[in-house]
Amino acid sequence: MPSAVEPWWRPDIFARRRPILELRGRLTAATRAFFTERDFLEVETPALQVSPGLEPHLMAFATELVAADQQSSRPLYLHTSPEFAMKKLLAAGLQRIFQLAHVFRNGEWASTHHPEFTMLEWYRNGEYGGVIADTVALMRTLAAVAGKSNVAWRGIACNLTAEPEQLTVQDAFAHYAGGIDLLATVGDIAALVGEARRIGVRVGEGDRWDDLVLRILAERIEPRLGSGRPTFLLDYPVEMAALARVKAADARVAERVELYICGVEIANGFGELTDADEQRRRFTVDMDLKEKLYGARYPIDEEFLAALEHGIPDTAGMALGFDRLVMLLAGADHIEDVLWAPVAG
After folding, report:
1. Would you say 167 and 231 are in contact if contact means Cβ atoms under 8 Å apart?
2. Burial 263-293 (b: 16+ CB within 10 A, else e)
3. Can you tell me the distance from the alpha carbon of 345 to that of 339, in angstroms, rounded to the nearest whole number?
């Protein structure tokens, strides 16, 4: 967490950030125009939710909703993503929607993390190739607004207008992590432990298969993605599917994709899972893991599962960290440089 030496609102301090924030304003307006011109409807959903999002390693902010008569209350959470509410709108019949939403994640404060930040999230009918194409076009549009095709972060340069690389997780492990055949290790933790040790990645006592996958990704693969051109890392093992559906052509992997620029994760997208029973099973597994690791368990949004049961069309979605993209386009060093009013440290 950064320590506040001088208040951000001091005119002399704010003046240093003002050109960046004015650029942010232009990028925000261009983003809205980009989606509106492509027949997406801008929506707004509440930050207060029954369930904040059920990714095992994300921590939410909890609050309490007091009844009007002051005689009762119930717990609510600030959402970590607008995903559940936006998918309910898909069930209601909308087909192409986007939102610039403030989202909240506790325990996250670093150069590329802030406890409250802006997420650009959008959904469209069809396969997840559609949201990948949207992302490429959006990057090029915003690069033109900023007048900056080439960006850099910590010594890694990337041309946002270059044809992006598409790399499967399996190929990334083979290429950047010493030739590991990741899918061959699924269900065989001992095999992945051996491979991690072979390439010099730490193995902790009690590490699970997914712990090692994430550590190898973080240490050996992610820093090398998005160098020279943007990289879409796709086709994650189904064990890491989250809210993505299984890929029809290969049941070992899911329709999940992440965008990297200059070694920084910028966006995360899915060909969306629409099977309510399978989604409940995954949620239960994830909350069992959260409870085991952190002693916390968040409620499942039953209304969200009811919306899936009611039916949503084949849909793909993408969630993009808007502040991070602005950082890169502005040449900023810290996420707080691109926030109008950072949360007090």
Report:
1. yes
2. bbbbbbbbbbbbebeebbebbeebbeebeee
3. 14
Query: How many angstroms separate the CA atoms of 193 and 55, rounded?
Result: 24
Selected from 3.50.50.60, 3.30.70.1140, 3.40.50.300, 3.30.930.10, the CATH number assigned to the domain covering 11-164+229-338 reads 3.30.930.10
- Whole-angstrom distance, CA of residue 253 vs CA of residue 24: 37
> For the segment 85-111, what is each residue's pLDDT rounded down to a tens digit?
999 999 999 999 999 999 999 998 899
Q: Which residues contact 227 (CB under 8 A, 6 or more apart)?
A: 156, 157, 158, 262, 263
Confidence grade of residue 136 (pLDDT, cut at 50, 70, 90): very high
Dihedral over alpha carbons 147, 226, 217, 324 (to 10 degrees) = 0
144-162 residue pLDDT tens: 999 999 999 999 999 999 9
* pLDDT tens profile 282-315: 999 999 999 999 999 999 999 999 999 999 999 9
Q: Give the start-end residues of each E strand in the chain.
A: 41-42, 48-49, 61-66, 73-78, 96-104, 116-125, 150-153, 156-159, 165-168, 231-237, 246-247, 250-261, 264-271, 315-321
Residues 6+ apart with CB under 8 A from 179: none
- Any idea which residue has 């904040």 for tokens? 52
